[in-house]
């Protein structure tokens, strides 16, 4: 099919298939007669494909028709995004398509059968649109409106007209009396009790979906993502409410999955979704709360204010949601949400950019996020979240082996302590302090107190549970570590980091079969953390499989220092000592350009059977207080634990031998 064929459109005005129809005049998609939201480009693509049923529409033809030859966009990303949006709305499956078939490396084919023009669904209001009366400007209280259903007026029989008139007058009088009674009850606040669903169980679990960026500038995505994060943080202050963290909900950014499906996947009873629009120094937040089972709009609201007031707007949204779902808040939690918080706009802007980059990882992004947090602090030294972000960045730089603990830990500690001095309700800085106490100060009791305090402040903070699980494993409490890792996974149900952490803790507990089963289950939908499976292979005598897995992982990670360490050790254990020494040389060359933790060398030497060299590097890590302590419980090191020099290291660190 050529480009001229693509430009040709069908003579009829509506394309109907299955339960859907595309109106070519109004540019609207409907399901069962109800309008369905679909972004304009995705709708144009659906129209193009459905206009040529059964025919291949190439990617080049799609680019020419939808974007034009002179438009400079990331076309591959854009078309893939549009196809995902269309499939999400239609409920289509790429592997078993009913509507759109992918022709690899060529294009797409619309495979559903179009229905005759004469058939049409009866028009109906949109399920996706929030009822207009619920959206009020600059109001923090939800407005509830009830309207009686529209009934068809029956025609009166001729002989009953007089009776009907008298009957209608009687009904009118009764309605008037009922209206007066309702007015009196309204004055007494009765509708609040009625409309707030008395006797029903309050909503106790909630997910905040990524806010949609309505600003015309796509570079403002960081602002929308940051607002999502801040709303989650505000709602997480309510201890009785389980709020899914940002790392789990961000996977639904741009998705068109039904709310009921998202709620099932996240195991929540309600979902908060909305939009954010920034126009210079003004911010508008639109939020709506949707119950999951059954799917039902519960509340909607608009908030607008200056950028200085953005934290106040977020707290108002959180307070309104708490009222609507009837969750019980402590006096302290009410005070936290009611206390006005004003922030310098430039500081807030820098903080948002820093947090955005911090969540995306990589050494480069960590360095940039550090700069942005420092800019925010310079603009507003009293901005607690900026100090917390800086502390988190310092800790991650060390955890990733980018800088030494000697360099980063004192700075992370100082920044975290400053954040807590400004706002002692934050859980994040407590976890950072716990990391410093574990990895640098070796204050295990202090680290445990901090982890427990962070969990007490925010039971839904997955990283607090993860840190505590790591601490328990280091102290030799393997079964408790597995249980705590599972708690972390419960509050982060679809985050692969927390799923992998459970598997790693099972591996540390020598539960190799269970770890392998869990890993293979995770691998089906999140192919990450291959070094865990390779570790299981090593401990169960499958050295060849371990080496093959780690060689592939090292290549995919662009020879990252962590993967090189695991690969060098596995090569030594499998007898490929010459290749293992080549990995050591690669690590030593890398150390001339960047920091490489001493214990990484130690683990490779242990795999090569060079015990004395391994102990020398472990002793160096201990002397520098740079040890990545999460590695110490690893079964790879079981044979070295009986060495007096290694026992002495454990004794110095205050760890069980």
Describe it.
The structure is a single chain. Helix 23 (543-556) packs antiparallel against helix 24. Strands 8, 9, 10, 11, 12 and 13 form a 6-stranded mixed sheet that branches. The chain has 657 residues and is α+β, with helices and mostly antiparallel strands. A hairpin with a 2-residue loop joins strand 11 (270-279) and strand 12.
Shape: globular
Q: Give helix % range.
A: 40-55%
Task: Quickly count the helices.
Answer: 28
Q: Return the average pLDDT rounded to an integer.
A: 79
- The count of strands amounts to 13
CATH class of the domain at 205-342: Alpha Beta
Beta fraction: 5-15%
Distance between the termini: 72 Å
The CATH topology of the domain at 205-342 is given as Rossmann fold
What is the name of the CATH superfamily of the domain at 205-342? ABC-type transport auxiliary lipoprotein component
Q: Indicate the structural class.
A: alpha+beta
CATH architecture of the domain at 205-342: 3-Layer(aba) Sandwich
Low-confidence stretches: 1-11, 118-199
Major beta-sheet overview: 6 strands, mixed
Q: State Rg.
A: 30 Å
């Amino acid at each position: 099919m050529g480009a001229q064929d693509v430009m040709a459109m069908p003579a009829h005005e509506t394309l109907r298939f299955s339960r859907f129809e595309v109106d070519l005049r109004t540019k609207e998609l409907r399901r069962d007669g109800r309008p369905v939201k679909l972004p304009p480009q995705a709708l144009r693509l659906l129209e193009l494909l459905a206009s040529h049923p059964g025919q291949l529409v190439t990617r080049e033809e799609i680019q020419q028709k939808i974007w034009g030859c002179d438009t400079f966009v990331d076309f591959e990303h854009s078309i893939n995004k549009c196809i995902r949006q269309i499939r999400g709305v239609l409920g289509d499956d790429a592997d078993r398509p009913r509507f759109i078939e992918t022709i690899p490396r060529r294009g797409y084919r619309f495979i559903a059968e179009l229905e005759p023009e004469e058939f049409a669904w009866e028009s109906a209001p949109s399920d996706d649109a929030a009822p207009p009366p619920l959206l009020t400007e600059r109001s923090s209280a939800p407005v509830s409106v009830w309207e009686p259903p529209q009934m068809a007026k029956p025609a009166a029989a001729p002989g009953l007209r007089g009776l009907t008139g008298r009957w209608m007058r009687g009904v009118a009088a009764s309605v008037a009396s009922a209206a007066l009674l309702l007015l009196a009850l309204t004055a007494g606040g009765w509708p609040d009790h009625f409309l707030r669903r008395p006797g029903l169980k309050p909503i106790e679990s909630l997910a905040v979906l990524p806010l949609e960026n309505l600003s015309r500038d796509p570079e403002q995505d960081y602002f929308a993502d940051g607002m999502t994060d801040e709303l989650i943080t505000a709602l997480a202050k309510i201890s009785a409410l389980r709020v899914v963290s940002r790392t789990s909900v961000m996977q639904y950014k741009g998705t068109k999955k039904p709310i009921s499906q998202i709620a099932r996947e996240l195991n929540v009873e309600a979902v908060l979704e909305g939009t954010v629009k920034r126009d210079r120094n003004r911010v508008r937040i639109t939020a709506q709360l949707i119950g999951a089972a059954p799917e039902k709009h519960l509340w909607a609201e608009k908030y607008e204010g200056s950028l200085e007031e953005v934290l106040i707007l977020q707290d108002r949204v959180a307070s309104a949601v708490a009222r609507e779902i009837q969750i019980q808040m402590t006096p302290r939690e009410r005070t936290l949400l009611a206390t006005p918080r004003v922030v310098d706009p430039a500081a807030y802007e820098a903080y948002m950019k820093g947090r955005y980059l911090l969540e995306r990882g990589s050494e480069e992004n960590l360095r940039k996020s550090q700069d942005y947090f420092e800019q925010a602090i310079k603009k507003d030294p009293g901005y607690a979240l900026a100090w917390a972000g800086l502390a988190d960045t310092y800790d991650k730089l060390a955890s990733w082996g980018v800088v030494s603990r000697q360099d980063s830990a004192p700075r992370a500690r100082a920044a975290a302590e400053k954040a807590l001095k400004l706002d002692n309700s934050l859980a994040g800085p407590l976890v950072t302090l716990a990391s410093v106490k574990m990895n640098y100060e070796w204050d295990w009791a202090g680290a445990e107190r901090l982890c427990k305090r962070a969990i007490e402040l925010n039971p839904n903070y997955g990283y607090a549970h993860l840190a505590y699980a790591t601490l328990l494993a280091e102290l030799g409490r393997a079964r408790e570590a597995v249980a705590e890792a599972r708690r972390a996974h419960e509050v982060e149900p679809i985050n692969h980091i927390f799923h992998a952490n459970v598997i790693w803790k099972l591996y540390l507990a020598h539960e190799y079969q269970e770890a392998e089963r869990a890993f293979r289950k995770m691998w089906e939908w999140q192919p990450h953390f291959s070094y865990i499976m390779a570790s299981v292979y090593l401990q169960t005598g499958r050295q060849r499989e371990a080496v093959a897995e780690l060689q592939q992982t090292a290549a995919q990670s662009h020879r990252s220092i962590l993967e090189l360490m695991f690969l060098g050790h596995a090569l030594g254990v499998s007898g490929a000592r010459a290749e293992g020494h080549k990995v050591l040389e690669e690590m030593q060359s890398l150390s001339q350009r960047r920091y490489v933790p001493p214990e990484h060398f130690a683990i490779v030497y242990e795999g090569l059977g060079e015990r004395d060299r391994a102990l020398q590097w472990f002793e160096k890590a201990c002397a520098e207080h740079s040890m990545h302590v999460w590695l110490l419980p690893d079964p790879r090191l079981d044979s070295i634990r009986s060495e007096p020099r290694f026992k002495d290291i454990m004794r110095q660190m205050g760890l069980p031998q």
